[in-house]
Amino acid sequence: MYGFTPVHVDLSTTFCNLVHMSSSPASASPSRSPARSGAVLAGVPVVPGVRYAPVIRPGRTPVTAESAVAHAAPGIGESERAAEAERFTSAAAVVAERLRGRAAHASGAAAEVLAATAQLAQDRAWLGAAEKRIKDGTPAVRATVEAVDQFVDMFTKMGGLMAERVTDLRDIRDRVVAELSGLPEPGVPVPDEPSVLCAEDLAPADTAGLDPALIVGLATTLGGPTSHTAIIARQLGIPCVVAVPGLDEVEAGAMVLLDGTHGTVEVTPEPAGAAAAVEAAERAAAAAATWTGPGATADGHPVAVLANVQDGAAARAAADTPAEGVGLFRTELCFLNRETEPGVDEQAAIYAEVLEAFPGKKVVIRTLDAGSDKPLRFVGHPEEANPALGVRGVRISWGNPGLLDRQLEAIAVAAERVGARPWVMAPMIATPGEARDFGDRARARGLTPGVMIEVPAAALLADRILEHVEFVSIGTNDLAQYTMAADRMSAELAMLTDPWQPAVLSLVGLTARAGAAAGKPVGVCGEAAADPLLACVLVGLGVTSLSSAAAAVSGVGARLASATLADCRHAAEAVLDAASASEARSAALAVLGD
Ligand code: PEP
Ligand code: MG
Question: So what's the pLDDT on residue 89?
Answer without folding.
Answer: 96
